[in-house]
Structure formats: structure tokens, C-alpha cells
Amino acid sequence: MGKAKSKILVIDASVARAVGSSERTKPLRHFLKDVLDICHQAVTTPEIRIEWKNHYSKFFQQWRKSMYSKKKIKDEEHVPEDSPLRQYIGLIKDQEQKKEMEKDLHLIEAALTADKVIISLDNKAEKHFGKFLKEQKIQWINPLKDKNVISSLE
User: Fold this and answer.
1) In terms of C-beta density within 10 A (0-12 exposed, 13-18 middle, 19 or more buried), how is residue 42 classed?
2) Which of 36, 83, 110, 145 is the most exposed place for a label (fewest CB within 10 A)?
3) Dihedral sign, CA of 25, 52, 78, 66?
4) Residue 1 confidence (pLDDT)
5) What is the pLDDT of residues 44-98, one digit of tens each?
6) How far apart are CA 107 and CA 13, in angstroms?
């Protein structure tokens, strides 16, 4: 088996918040440990850093520190806006859906500047962005649903 290709991942705050010591979140812990041990990296933007700061578990805080110490976090200070996607969201009539999409838009824009992989537990957002994700070939991966996350990144 060859060396895994390094990917720059967008890791949503839903993962930061949920990962803990319970049996239910064991797949999340394994996934984050694999990201730390393998050559994968994570990208952050000002919005992602704020979310991580506001929604994290003790495990995630330690993981984040380890990722920074291994220089596996790529801090992006400015991520270009995706005008077509923003225009599309602006036309949505369902205000709840529109609000949900606006809340997670920064994840999509960060993914477009990285390797087009979002790690998130937010299945609702994945559904809302479904058409755009498919068109842009962005992977939206839920480590609690997909037990072979690391191998799907290769």
C-alpha cells in the first residue's frame, strides 16, 4: 500500500463540539487521531477559528494544540467569497433554509480554497448544499456515518 495523499480538510465546529469520551463519539476520536498521525491537515479561517473557540470539547482542544505543534493547521486569513453560491442562497424563499445555508457558507468557501473536503456532523447542511457540493465536487463527510473516512480521502 502506497503513502496516503495529504488532504487539507475543513473541520466543522459540529465535530469540535461533539467529540468527547463517550462510546458514541469513538469514531470521531479515531478519525481526528488518524488526521493527526497521517499526513492530513486542516484549514482554518477567522470564522472557523471563532467556531472552534466557542464550540469545543476537551479532546478537540488537545487535538488542535497537537495539530498546531505539528504545523498541520493552515490558517487562511482571507478566503474569497463564492459569488454564484451567495447569489443562489440570496434567492432561496425558505427563510429557515436560507439562514442555515448562510451560517455554513464559510465552510464551503474554505473547502474551495483547500482540497474540497468538509468534515461535519451537520446532515441538514449537507442536504441544503447538495446540488452545489455535487457540481463543485466537494466531499461532505460525516465520520459518524462513514466509518472508513480516512480511506475515502485517498
Assistant:
1) buried
2) 83
3) negative
4) 41
5) 999 999 999 998 899 999 999 999 999 999 999 999 999 999 999 999 999 999 9
6) 10
pTM, entire model = 0.92
Give 16: exposed, middle or buried? Use CB within 10 Å, 0-12, 13-18, 19+. buried
Dihedral sign computed on CA atoms, order 31, 127, 118, 75: negative
Instruction: For cell 480521502, name the residue.
Output: 153
Backbone phi and psi for residue 144, each to the nearest 5 degrees, phi listed first: -85, -25
Are 116 and 134 in contact, with CB atoms under 8 Å apart?
Answer: no
Crossing angle of helices 95-113 and 83-90, in 10° steps, is 170
Strand locations in 13-115, DSSP E? Answer: 41-44, 73-75
Residue in the block written with cell 456532523: 121
**Per-residue burial over 63-98, b = 16 or more CB atoms within 10 Å of its CB, e = otherwise:** bbeebeeeebbeebeebeebeebeeebeeeeeeeee
Sheet holding 117-119, edge to edge: 73-75, 41-44, 8-11, 117-119, 139-141
